[in-house]
Amino acid sequence: MNAQSYAFDPAPIPALPVSGSTLLFPIHRVYCVGRNYAAHAVEMGGDPDREPPFFFQKNPDDLYVGDSFPYPSASQDVHHEIELIVALKDGGVDIPQGRALDCVFGYGVALDMTRRDLQARAKEMARPWEVGKAFEKSGPCSALRAASEIGHPTAGAIWLDVNGERRQTGDLDQLVWKVPEMISHLSGLFRLAAGDIIMTGTPAGVGPVERGDAMRGHIDGVGDIAFRVI
């Protein structure tokens, strides 16, 4: 029997490097949590009180490691949003919170770059956010750090500097929905799988970037990210 053939060569599997090794983490899906820091919910016009989490998605190949972020087309207002990312090595449905961290491979630092003008237009028309969130190269990332190395961070500074000026600052303990809660809730909506990435939300201070800006972000105990807007 002939081996299965494709109409054309498949695209490479999107992947992130694993710090301290030659391993690559293959990306399956990317789930993003909206308004998961109270102060950011307020600055975006939302309710700071704890409300059920909501999610949107990026494409797996939107995430990448590199030293530059290409300013996207069709937008004049692109914003930075620094986030902790959670990489899963296991999944399932209806995962109990008490077992959720068993599914975690590791953590990293990423930015959810956002075409804010297009997102705002989508909100006004009650349409999905993907046009503002899921464009090419919209998820600059650091290498992943394995949970076996750093544990499961629940507190620690998260910040972003633009051209040496502090723009965003917060602490992981300010997450409205904690990592086990996010995993458990998501698994009631989707069948989670090895290779899934969860972007956990951003602290207050989001704002626009310009071509030439130098971006530097950090999460205590997890890592750093640095790139330039081109």
TrEMBL record:
Domain Fumarylacetoacetase-like C-terminal: start-end pairs: 30-229
Assigned keywords, A-Z: Hydrolase, Metal-binding
Pfam families found in the cross-reference section: FAA_hydrolase (PF01557)
One GO molecular-function entry: hydrolase activity
Record's keyword annotation contains Metal-binding: yes
Domain of life from the UniProt record: Bacteria
InterPro entries: Fumarylacetoacetase-like_C, Fumarylacetoacetase_C_sf
Key word Hydrolase present: yes
Protein name, per record: Fumarylacetoacetate hydrolase family protein
